[in-house]
Design a protein that fits this description.
The protein is mainly α. α2 crosses α3. It is elongated.
């Protein structure tokens, strides 16, 4: 086959493909969008902090100068970042000693008592 004929067949195939793709695209019907608009749900009084945060969100940049918004943001941060009382270590109850005073076990006085000395393996030192 001649190179010119091969080029013409390729060009005709490309033009045919382009016309077919254009016809298919023009024949499509518009579909409704798959997403919904961002609208704030209307919740009434469920959580006053949440309501205040929504109000501050709607203020936009003006919320950075609003004292109520600054307080609401601080409260919201504290809600997530402040350690809860349940997670803080609680002192262990101590049994009274012979004279009615609390008695400290040896481990509570010196934390080094509970730490075990690392075992030295003579075989690992010889291999080095």
């Amino acid at each position: 086959m001649d190179g010119k004929i091969l080029a013409r067949i390729g060009a005709v195939g490309f033009v045919t493909f382009a016309i077919t793709a254009t016809a298919i695209e023009l024949s499509r019907k518009d579909e409704p969008p798959l997403y919904r608009s961002v609208a704030a749900p209307t919740e009434t009084g469920a959580d006053p902090l949440k309501t205040e945060l929504r109000r501050c969100q709607q203020l936009g940049e003006a919320g950075t100068r609003d004292p109520a918004c600054l307080q609401a943001w601080a409260d919201n941060r504290d809600r997530f970042l402040k350690p809860s009382q349940a997670l803080q270590p609680q002192p262990a109850p101590q049994a009274p000693g012979p004279h009615g005073q609390p008695q400290n076990p040896p481990a509570a006085r010196d934390p080094a008592v509970n730490e075990a000395a690392p075992a030295i393996d003579s075989h690992t030192n010889e291999a080095r």
